[in-house]
Amino acid sequence: MVLDLKICPACGDRAERPQVESGLLVCAECAHRWPFRRLPLFALTGPSGAGKSTVGPLLARRLGDLALVVEQDVLWTGALRDDVPGHPAFRSTWLRMAAMLHQNGRPVVLCGTVAPPEFERLPERVFFSGIHYLALVSEPDALRKRLLARPAWREWDEERVEEMLEFNEWLQREAPSLDPPVEVFDTTRIPVDAAVDHVEAWVRGLLSGTQGPNAALG
Fold it and tell me: What InterPro entries would the database entry show (predicted)?
């Protein structure tokens, strides 16, 4: 069992704002310090319909030796499905889950719609050595067509489509100025295999500049 990193293994206190000092987690209650794997997180983001759900399963096969590819929507349920801007409970839960998975030694590639301001300000951000963002985007007409062609149970009406088109446009415009910047890749006329190639190269390239997924604790 891998313990939630917000919980001190010595006294059981649950930290609202986890603390890391010199590569160790530190309990604010009992001052216990313990090592953990502080790996990078890879956020494969972008608007719905740009290709994340298509790329994800193929990417998992390509990166099986190196990383865990996870779909964020599996937690979009119950109390986590709130109307608070940025959905902090949902985002925090995902960061905690990814951090626990990291303790097994492989970084997580999280497939889902997210932007840096929704992760970078959260207390759980401290669990990661860095979060890297790659956004799959599309030309508006192609994105609209894909979304409206989805099954009825996914509830893509005109209002919801327009919201996603606005996010698609915002992301392409603001990506370079976000903190950290977001890399953008347009999938409109790109074959699926080429999109998978690009995402795989992005992950492997970033990891090759570190000590790798099995880096020392902390």
Answer: P-loop_NTPase
**Tens digits of per-residue pLDDT, 43-96?**
999 999 999 999 999 999 999 989 999 999 888 888 788 878 889 999 999 999
The SS3 of residue 70 is: strand
Q: Is 185 helix (H, G, I), strand (E, B) or coil?
A: strand
Cβ-in-10-Å burial (0-12, 13-18, 19+) of 182 comes to buried
Please list the residues that pair with 42 across neighbouring strands. 109, 132
Helix 52-62 vs helix 192-208: crossing angle, to nearest 10: 60
DSSP designation for 62: H
Cβ density class 63-80: b for 16+ within 10 Å, e for less: beebbbbbbbeebeeeee
- Half-sphere exposure of residue 29, counting CA atoms within 13 Å on the CB side? 12
The three-point CA angle 74-200-133 to 5° equals 60
pTM: 0.91
Average pLDDT of the residues in 174-185: 97
